Amino acid sequence: MKIRVATRGSKLSLAQTQLALNEIRKRHPEVEFELVIVKTRGDIHQDKPFTMIGGKGLFEKEVNLAVLEGRADIAVHSLKDVPSEVSPGLVLAMTPPRASPFDVLVTRGSPKTIWDLPAGAVVGSSSARRVAMLKRVRSDLVFKPLRGNVDTRLRKLQQGMYDAIILAEAGLQRLGLDIEYWRIPPDVLPPAPGQGILGVYTLYSRGDILPLLEDATDEEAMTMARAERAFLAYAGGGCHTPLGAYAWIEKGILYIHAAVASPDGSKRVDVTVEGDPERPAQLGIDAALELRAKAASAGITL
Ligand SMILES: NCc1[nH]cc(CCC(=O)O)c1CC(=O)O
Question: Recorded E.C. number(s) (predicted)?
């Protein structure tokens, strides 16, 4: 059997796709794979803000179109780039084991915490979540947009365009980049829903492929994915809402911690909810409704 795999062509996307395919190979060594590389508008216009090139779900839509049009059988995504409403007809069919969900602060020289940065330091990030949550603890920092793939971002830091940048730890781990950094605790910066989880999507109708993907699924990662994605769907808000959430399992209990802030970081509310790992979507919904109520009383629009 041969499976055609839609993926973006960036170094990180290709590394992620190999990680996901290796999980399938472990269970089904007989399967062959063929990559279908999709060049998305997000890859072509790396210098432009997302809002100018199509916004929400930019990467997801074009890669998944290859599956919808029959040019590929499955698609591999970073779950945090997949909007809450995925292209119709597609199902999240497999998750490999999760990498780190957390964000890191990378500085030139020795690693520094957010509190060690000098007053007025320039921090690179285009993420509303990263900017608002860090402004909350360091309102004096100057945030400047930063896009492009991980190598480009690190190069811009080394060139001195920024004093610090924020990246996902998962991306650095998957690229095998051996750099020093400070892991930002989630009470300072809650991760994006799905950060560190890869998602393999296929059509609902692919009864030939779905069982293979189910065999290769890491159940804990899938449970966390379901909780965080249900949270995202019910929390509402656009991709410019400073919203974070991550789920974890401890002693058989599923937890989710979620937070939302005002864009300038002046206000923030948090919730932590626990529930049954067999019902992750319920937990995500509970957390979203609780967070919405708390945000409304604090005057944060969601
Ligand atoms: N926004 C791009 C993106 N999408 C997923 C990751 C990292 C890997 C992951 O979260 O699974 C990154 C890079 C980053 O934010 O530093």
Answer: 2.5.1.61
